[in-house]
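Q: Structure for this?
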Amino acid sequence: MSDTSTFMPVLLWTDALVFLLVGVLCLFAWSCWRSENLRRGWARVAASGIGMGSAVVLALFVAIGLLDSLHFRPALDKPGEGGKVAYSVDVLSVLDVLVAPLRERRERTYSAPLAAVAFQKETIERPDGTQAREFPRLRHGGAHLADPADAPADIAWRAAAGLLAGLVAAAAFCALWIGLLALSRRSSLRVTLADVLHGTSGGANWRAFLLTASVLLVLAAPIAVLSMQYHVLGTSKIGQSVLYLSLKSIRTSLVIGTLTTLVLMPFAVLLGIAAGYFKGWVDDLIQYVYTTIESIPSVLLIAAGVLLIQVYMETRPGLFETSAQRADFRLLMLCVILGLANWTGLCRLLRGEALKLRELEYVQAAHAFGVSHWRIIVRHLAPNMLHIVLISAVMGFSGLVLAEAVLSYVGVGVDPSMISFGTMINDARLEMAREPMVWWSLMAAFGFMLALVLAANLFADVVRDAFDPRSTVRRAGFRIGPARMPDRAGGSA
Amino acid sequence: MSERPDGGTGGAGVRQDGTAPLLEVEGLRTWIHGGNSVVRAVDSVTLELVRGETLALLGESGCGKSMTALSIMRLLPDAAEVVGGSVRLDGEDLLDLPEHAMRAVRGARIGMIFQEPMLSLNPVMRVGLQVEEALHRHRRMSGTAARARALELLQAVGIPDAVRRLDEYPFQLSGGMRQRVMIALALACDPELLVGDEPTTALDVTIQAQVLDLLRDLQRSRGMAMLLITHDLGVVARTAQRVAVMYAGEIVEVAGVDTFLRGPAHPYSRKLFDSLPERGSRDAPLAVIRGSVPALDGRFDGCRFAERCDHAFEPCRTSLPPLVDLADGQRVRCHLHAASGRPSAAGALDPPSQAVPAAAGAASSVAPAVGPFGPATTPATERTPAAPAAPLLVVRDLQVHFPLRGGLLRRPRGAVRAVDGVSLELAPGRTLALVGESGCGKTTVGKSLLRLVEPTGGCVEFEGRDLRGLGRSLLRPLRARMQIVFQDPYASLNPRIRVGDALDEGMRSLRPEWNAAERRRRIERLLEQVGLPAEAGNRFPHQFSGGQRQRVAIARALSVEPRLVVCDEPTSALDVSVQAQILNLLRSLQQQMGLAYLFITHNLGVVDVVADEIAVMYLGRIVERGPVRTVLDAPAHPYTRALLSAVPRLDRDDAPAEARIAGDPPSPIDPPAGCHFRQRCPLALSACAQQYPAPVALPDGRVVACHLHGPGAGTHLAAGPADRR
């Protein structure tokens, strides 16, 4: 091969935005570290057991999503014209490579979880030439077995081995972590261990962290071991592993949940603050706009938007090199449309807050100093609204993940070729009436979405509790020592 | 007050009359559990209260008075708990009662009045029903009987037109009316004990006078015991028979009110008196208590006040002071008195070995004859009269109307006439006090001068330049010449911006000629000027106490070197000892930098200390304006007189009843025709209803808007209030 490169990196639009978002989050984390208020808030999140546990689950999902966002096109074995390396039209991700066995070992059609034979009887030709109607063996699921009837014993044995491996891995992970913790604190291993076990370590709740991580490891190991020989969650209509589909859906959900927030944020923040701060006709105009948008059923609005995009893409077939790029563009547009339909709630909240803050005396003092409107908004208003933005972004995430599922189910969601929880559910819908029922696609989508959304919701709750000033700051008011509290803080500082 | 039940001594624990006390609090300790520490908010408090007696619990914010009351009522917040002691009501220990039995005690045997009437009444329930609910709960009354009783109660607390008020909602009532309803609620079941937690702090001074009179009359006629929590010495003098002073969670002094007012024994009590802004302190700096209340999360080895006490000597730091009995039932927790072997309350105030000159001064400044506005005052030294310089600020006929919009197209339907024709003049380096009750428009005047609120009419001239119609950019150079200090030190600093950056912001905007190094140098000097350490610039506002924050706010206003500072109630959110610090600071800054102050306040005591001239506002207009001494000594307008007489005084000399005004201020949306004050005015004439009186300049240099002083009212002048004093 003349050219050494065996793949061509592909940067899809959503990939770019996802990594931009990661960059923004890193910046945000850095600014959190510098700002005492925010650091205290996050410290409260870390100190909460639920917060730490849900953060671990979310981190796992995010890691999968990020791996799935590194796209490339592998080189084809035979060079194309002019000796140049030709690249496959399939766009793969790093995740695809990591779970290649899942992706590549396809069956012909449905098979139940952990099955060694197909789901339906077929007429097959025996070696002796007779025909029989029976459950055919799967191409990959349990293919190593001499007799499919041995499957349960084999599964049990492998699961036990996996479980053991998981336990060992979990123990090793915990030991490693506690060792690192002890090292960073310069305390003895025993003290650190006792601290973690009793949850008395101060700071972050490492007990919840290690517990969740261990549970995840112990669960994941048997699945990993079993999926070498079986389809743990069965296969879909076209024989794809449902586990693979579920893993791929995670990225779609995360992209929808986060990029939509990214899209709606500028609208909500700028318009909300402008409406509350300037009042008068600016306020009237913005209020009329969002009241109008809110009175249109959002599904209708989204359907109209998606159809518009569809027509646009169909009339320009040369726009995209690969089908993945095409599907990705539609995903991006879906995020934009969802964002445009969803900014009103946050905007309303921020308008109210801006109305309140603009009357505060420190804003008035800034006016008295002739500080410009823009500087007042950036320095005095926006930082004091950050907690609202943060809380509503985290809480909105789970709503958007669910919205994607509903929209794809209705048919105005992501591209049909794109794997998402919504398309999984949509595909499974018709098979619900079948006897015996094909339940695994639906259950897998349900289970993964439940885990993701529940973790996000729990995390959002903890974030809200940690940042909501009403739950943390006891502001001066009644005669019970308001002025003294800051004194004490000052004394210790 | 000759009606004192026990002849005015009111000694605790040494009662000769032998009556068993109604309420006995013994060794009460209440702790608040914080994040990592425990705050000992109430530490071994012992109190006694007999029937028919009013005990005032006096102290600054954070000293545990409210916690004591809430512990007695067992209404503590979740984080707090009573860890020791007993609370006995008629011999029965309330702390042992199960919650359901306690519910029967609350409301029926102990009534409670809170500070904020708006927060303690249910906003979606008619007031009559709220009273009836209490009657139903404790007296099993319902239907017409309950309604009749509710009506009777509302009448008893002096609510006019009570039949109609029964069916109104709290928002339809004014603040004073709401507090009366709250009192009616507390009295519904004839409680033996009434606990009032700062019941008049949120009210205006004229309304406060009404409510205090009401409480005192009710307490006398019903023979109730009353525990009155307050931070205001004037309220104590006006209502209480005995007083208990709290400091840092414990009681430092108990005495009969007369004894206490004559000679407070504890150094802390005496400091409280000294820091009151009064006439005597006009030219000397006010006494201040240095430092702040100690944190209550540790144990104390010595006296809690030792760090801030001028008389502290060796044992104060090493051993806990005992409660010493003095004469007249006065008890004090102080080593000075323990060591000197029971001296009499009036004389022994000094540590045995040291002579303390402050003691004599303290005693004389609270001598009964010298009230804040006593008539018999020498024409004390006015501040050096300024040369007749050109006025710095001239305001003519200033109007600020806020339109009320209604209907689909939001057309203006009327206007709130917050400021309706105000004229002022202020010379450089002088102080003009703008006085009035809440809602009279005084803050709006201050803000409209700085164009934080757009004036709708009139003319403002600053340094000879007309500010009318100047846009945001044209106004900017002038903003460096006039600045503002706000009321609430908690709201006036952005919690997310370091103090240094907050000071920097104004200079960067208005003094672009100063570079970064220059600004840094100035920030350091400003912090030093207002008495804060230089490293304060790196801290966030929440790391400061209220008084320190107000210092920061003052430094911020001064950062651009203004000539005029509008001080909008700069001390009303602060404790009295801190208020003295801030007033001293403002005065010394004025002398150093030649500042002119427009000092907006509702506190007439403060006016007397800081102001050269005074303007009294009522419902958007100035009713009287003139040199401060002239106006306060012999007020010409009936409203000024009423305002002065409503201030609770330390000399316990009841103001003539006719000077008290009844009722609430009318609404600025629809002011009464003619003189705005006529409906509340005891001296109203027929002319008052016809037209608003034109301002008249009197020969002594003041301007009054009153028909009593009008050109055509010469005959009334003889009976005018100025002469009736």
